[in-house]
């Protein structure tokens, strides 16, 4: 198992690296085939205030006077060593610009994920043990409701009620703990819908299995039955869903940051789009691809460890986890 798992992990890591490189190449090609030369047009814009010497240095750095395939090779070479280029607006390294704001976005995304998991597991528990006529039916409708309401609507409602009317946080203090909490709630509520739907479906399935009936016949309490016998097998598909919702978290974080006036990757993207700072935009796309791939890679590597029913397919052309037949 250890040897098979090591081979499986190596294949998944290599696949993840290939995906990141392809995402970077795709972004580069899209920018390269745009009409005209957007990078040079930005440099030649009198409003940006670049001198001829600065323009020449930047053109030489990006190889804009050379064929596209050479520019791509140089760009990939810089990417491998962690060099994401230089901002066309500020002249600062892109890694520095992203490093200054990524922490705020990461805090928001992780907080929103925590909110989503708490809501999803609370809904899942309630659908098992609240009265069927009232509480269960209402809770089962929550995921559909959460999914139908965009996060920016939730954010505006939270700001209107808790900031303007109740004064629980100040909009001008967008980086404070209270403001971050409400921003995380706005982002986490829609994300929790998908997790809750999958969790409820799997809880219903596991509750009908023979081992659950045996545990109930032995007088096991509701909470212990839920935590010890139903939650773990039902949570395994949730790992996959969480990995797939990373894109929603990243995209939602950009919108939520704008609503709550937070300084993060969202504000950096907004400035870069407005000023056509293409190296920064390309770096942000690469960062999003890396984040998505890494999270899904972690989920793929955890699944065989968490579920003993999963076996690793062997052979040269097979490197995925499969559920063993009972």
Automatic annotation (TrEMBL):
Entries under PROSITE patterns matching the protein: ABC_TM1
Primary localisation category: membrane
Subcellular location: Cell membrane
UniProt keyword Transport present: yes
Topology of this chain in the membrane: Multi-pass membrane protein
Cross-referenced InterPro entries: BPD_transp_1_N (IPR045621), MetI-like (IPR000515), MetI-like_sf (IPR035906)
GO cellular component, one term: plasma membrane
Protein keywords: Cell membrane, Membrane, Transmembrane, Transmembrane helix, Transport
Domain ABC transmembrane type-1: 102-303
One Gene Ontology biological process: transmembrane transport
Gene3D superfamilies listed in its UniProt record: MetI-like
Family note: Belongs to the binding-protein-dependent transport system permease family.
Protein name (record): Peptide/nickel transport system permease protein
Lineage: Bacteria, Bacillati, Actinomycetota, Actinomycetes, Pseudonocardiales
